């Protein structure tokens, strides 16, 4: 296919439009949602838009369904938001303008994951045109704020059970088209981010005993977390060793630290930005409770003896659960056949699938483009993935939904 042929395809047009909407997580996605809604209604889907207000910014998820209202359906999901590009060095093209050099297709969201959404839309249109009467239903779920620890799908799963009861039966399985180079993942870790803030008492460094140094106390907090990390390593299951050979256990990461005002002042506060990757079988709630209990016993209680104002708090906590679907299932078998490869070990990152599996929808992550391209300057996917992805999704929808 020539560059001209690629650029005159419907897939190009839909992808180009989606990439052109600035859906950086902090911004509104309503224009993109309106476009998705119009497209889906045009090809015969029922559409429900669920709007939200996040710190004054209007955002929405899209639910769209086609076919008989019965169980056993297929869900296909992707997130509409993208990571920021403003101030990110290295871009050679306008991140919001999709371009190709004949080998790769460039733009923010090409890999993560607007082209997959475009492939799913155009594929659905093709299948619907050929098979008006679906045997099993198809449900699209497009979310916002996936890049903010899955906050959009985290809110959506609170309303989905009611939607499945009143409007449309819960699908049997889900495909999430995050960039995996078309590798098939049945599991990934959960993810939590949070700030730990030590509130001490400031003062002049000439009389250290008159204050309580927050940086020094943060040292105790870091020691406790390092010990918990060591304990987590003692509880590795054989299954997690197989799924995540590079790092089987749940694990903390110290991301950013800051505190104090000057070299000659006692630091009154210290903030540590952290994350926690949670292996299947563990929960972030449980691990963080252990952490809080130990900090309370070993740090806060001693600080309070000095002053009741001292404290250690957790702020800005966002958490999304791990995902572990059966390696052998009707959808994993279909994906394995369509993409001609086995179901892989766990994905090294979190997705909306953790939330969907949490309410009982076994999910698989498989899509065009490479993880290494996501969030990078000059984000791109190979032209072959662009073209073959639509055919593959067409085949999946046809076999699951349209054939006996
Ligand atoms: Zn993504």
Automatic annotation (TrEMBL):
It comes from the Bacteria. Pfam families: M20_dimer (PF07687), Peptidase_M20 (PF01546). Keywords: Amino-acid biosynthesis, Arginine biosynthesis, Cobalt, Cytoplasm, Hydrolase, Metal-binding, Zinc. PROSITE patterns: ARGE_DAPE_CPG2_1. Its cofactor is Zn(2+). Residues 187-298 form the Peptidase M20 dimerisation domain. InterPro entries: AcOrn-deacetyl, ArgE/DapE_CS, Bact_exopeptidase_dim_dom, Peptidase_M20, Peptidase_M20_dimer, Peptidase_M20A. Belongs to the peptidase M20A family. ArgE subfamily. PANTHER family: ACETYLORNITHINE DEACETYLASE, N-ACETYL-L-CITRULLINE DEACETYLASE. This is Acetylornithine deacetylase. It comes from Dictyobacter halimunensis. The lineage of its organism: Bacteria, Bacillati, Chloroflexota, Ktedonobacteria, Ktedonobacterales.
